[in-house]
Amino acid sequence: MNYETIQRKIEKLAIRAGEKILHADTDALQDVTITTKSSRRDLVTSMDLEIQRMLMTELKKLIPECRFLCEESIPEMADAMITDTDSITGGSSITDGICFIIDPIDGTANFVHGNRHSCTSVAMTADGETQIGVIYDPYRDELFSARKGCGCFLNGEKLPVFDASMKNEITVFGTAPYDDTTNGPTFRLAQNLYELSADVRRTGSAALDCCWTACGRFGLYAELSLSAWDFAAGQLIAEETGCIVTTIDGQPLTFEGKPSILCGRPAAVGEFRAAADGWRV
């Protein structure tokens, strides 16, 4: 199996997804239906479903034996030869063979409200290890793409491996909007980040937070609860530029459950952990 060939195919599919996002955003958002899932903040649109269906269909053609771990639930698709057994509901099941981890629109709330900061995220795992990560931001026409051990590229240009401390960098945090139990700790985290860094941001896209940390726009990213589709591609992209990516308390990230995330340069991660000693999620 040629991972480079698969990577190029995923890149093309991510750009196709981005074209759909831009078309809906500029011409047809009034035709996009919006519903809620677990809470009023947990949105899904008809465009999420359309993009995920397209990605699953094309990736199944590429690797017929693959399985999927996706944000959205889509019924069995007989026309695409995708059955219920092709979809994985728990990250612990990603141990054998090829699995694609898909977030069709990361930053759905941004998309719905016209904030123009969303992306499509696709990761490919082989026997439980992430081998490919591709994230495309259609609004900036930025394609982040990484293959394990081969570095990360932004629009074809290889991103450098470098280190940086927090004090002169902007940091970013996520609010884990689907889990209200994290509200208090999240904003204590935000204050901690603000006091340690030049300033702090909240963007609404975990995948792009990882990418922007990877390319140096942010010095550190932290969030208290994420799903695998939020971080799988972004983790590899960041790690391929020399970032450390773990849970807040330094444990390895897993695809099971909803772990916290800390993503940043070694110096920044060290500074955060030293300052936050004794503070745990």
Explain what this protein looks like in three dimensions.
This protein has 7 helices and 14 strands. 43% of the residues are buried. Helix 5 packs parallel to helix 6. Helices cover 33% and strands 23% of the residues. Strands 3-4-5-6-7-8-9 form a 7-stranded mixed beta sheet, with helices on both faces. Strands 11-10-12-14-13 form a 5-stranded mixed beta sheet, sandwiched between helices. With 281 residues, it is of the alpha+beta class. The mean pLDDT is 89.
Relevant terms:
single chain, 281 residues, alpha+beta, seven-stranded mixed sheet, five-stranded mixed sheet, 33% helix, globular
The neighbouring-strand order within the major sheet is 3-4-5-6-7-8-9
Number of separate helices: 7
Q: How would you characterize the largest beta sheet? A: 7 strands, mixed
Order of helices and strands: HEEHEEHEEEEEEHEHEHEEH
Mean pLDDT: 89
Portion of residues in helices?
25-40%
* Secondary structure: number of strands: 14
Shape: globular
First and last CA, distance: 40 Å
If you compute it from the alpha carbons, what radius of gyration comes out, rounded to the nearest whole angstrom?
18 Å
Query: What structural class do you assign from the helix and strand content?
Result: alpha+beta
Unreliably modeled segments: none
Assess the beta-strand content as a share of residues. Answer: 15-25%
